[in-house]
């Protein structure tokens, strides 16, 4: 009896995990990919000493990105 219960539980959990993975893949497909920016100019900040990337997107919006070392 215990092995039948364990088999049923295992099959149920496997089914749930497959459904979860399926729905996560579907939901992820509808999200937009992250933006990729190419730096037009890299400057070093006087106040913080960090490198800053100055660029813009296809809509003309300016972006100021602090780069990691």
The number of distinct helices, counting runs of at least 4 residues, comes to 1
Spatially, the strands of the biggest sheet line up as 1-2-3
Radius of gyration: 24 Å
Count of spatially separate domains: 2
> How far apart lie the N and C ends?
60 Å
Helical residue percent?
Answer: 40-55%
Write up what this structure looks like.
The chain is α+β, with helices and mostly antiparallel strands. The chain has two domains: about 30 residues; about 35 residues. Helices cover about 40% and strands about 20% of the residues. The chain has one helix and three strands. It has a three-stranded antiparallel β-sheet with strand order 1-2-3, with no helix packed on it. The protein is elongated, with a radius of gyration of 24 Å. It starts with a helix and ends with a strand. The mean pLDDT is about 80.
Descriptive terms for the model:
69 residues, alpha+beta, 2 domains, three-stranded antiparallel sheet, 3 strands, 22% strand, elongated
The gist of it:
The chain has 69 residues and is α+β, with helices and mostly antiparallel strands. Helices cover 41% and strands 22% of the residues.
Helix and strand layout, with pairings?
Elements: H1 2-29, E1 41-44, E2 51-56, E3 62-66
Antiparallel strand pairs: 1-2, 2-3
């Amino acid at each position: 009896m215990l092995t039948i219960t364990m088999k049923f539980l295992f099959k149920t959990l496997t089914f749930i995990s497959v459904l979860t993975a399926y729905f996560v893949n579907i939901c992820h497909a509808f999200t937009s990919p992250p933006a990729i920016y190419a730096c037009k100019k890299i400057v070093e900040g006087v106040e913080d000493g960090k490198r800053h990337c100055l660029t813009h997107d296809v809509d003309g919006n300016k972006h100021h990105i602090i780069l990691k070392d």
